[in-house]
Amino acid sequence: MTRPPAAPGAAGPGAYVLGVDSGGSGLRVALGRAELPGPLATTLCAEPVRTGPGGIDATHLLDQLLPAARELLDRASASATDDAPTGEVAALAVGAAGMATLGDRLRSELPGALAEALGVRRLALAADAVTAYAGAVGQRPGAVVAGGTGMIALGTDLMEWHRADGWGHLLGDSGGGAWIGRAGLDAAMRAHDGRRGGSPALLDRLRSVFGPAEALPGLLYPRSDRPAVLASFAPEVAACAGADPVAAGILRQAAGHIAEAAAAVCPTSAGTEAEAEADESGEVALTGGLFKMGEPLIAPLREELAQLLPGARVTTAAGDPLTGALRIARALAAGDLRLPRHPTMLFVPQEHGSGQHGGTAVRDEPRTR
Known about the structure:
A hairpin with a 2-residue loop joins strand 4 (about 50) and strand 5. The radius of gyration is 22 Å and the shape is globular. It has a 6-stranded mixed beta sheet. A 6-stranded mixed beta sheet has the order 12-11-8-9-10-14, with helices on both faces. It has a two-stranded antiparallel sheet with strand order 4-5. By secondary structure, it is α/β, with parallel strands linked by helices. The chain is built from 13 helices and 14 strands.
């Protein structure tokens, strides 16, 4: 089904937008109306998009996305009550894990393929941290900490992106699920050996989850999904934190790492304390499964953030990365995308090289306060 291309200017009445979230658990697609908030319908393609030597496999993504999009569009058109919906796809935004470093094929192949198959002329290709930001904060200045197995902080003053961590479990992701799980297992093994810093409570949890402590290396090291295995122990650390000072100390240290990353990217970290208190840009939104641990992690994190960012408002994300992708698509359709463009973080093909709407820089280093 080929749909007519979107006309220049604002989307027509009844026009649709599509948001896509591609991650480790699969490909999610949301359909919405350009002029209405929220999704009309969503669907999940349970197979994660493949990544190979050439990066993210654009053909595999399209093989899943196009049937899902057509099904959503056909269902919406069949149930539409509008007098004259256009049926066009005014804009589409894709957020993908690995987009910044592995998205070359997506950036080269998706614009033409989506224009031909769906008539899409307004397209944004974003790193998943950017769609997480858009889902959590919207198009305001601020910062988001996305925590799960790993951990990354992303902030913007709407002129450029500022990134901290997200370097993987060997080089960083400090304070994320794998980091917490590894620290908990280290404390358990210390108790097993009789070394300082050990936690008998965490050793008991290790044995309950994995079996004999001495067998853990043989279970862990051959696994290709070691970060996920490590992260699976993080909830055990949180469960022990109320009664075990070692577990509580691990979560406090994790909170310190997370707060440092947030302070490195939050726009207010470059200003004075008085400016931070008066500036609405001082929002730090928390998103991702890591924060489902609740108060054992959130309470020390709030304390650490209060020390490093005295004027910041700590919030829970208003929406997830799929919500963020749909928001970006809707802003594109309206000609109102205010988030900074960037060649790999937030790529808008028809604007590439135009220098519109803010800078194209992304800063990986913390700024001095």
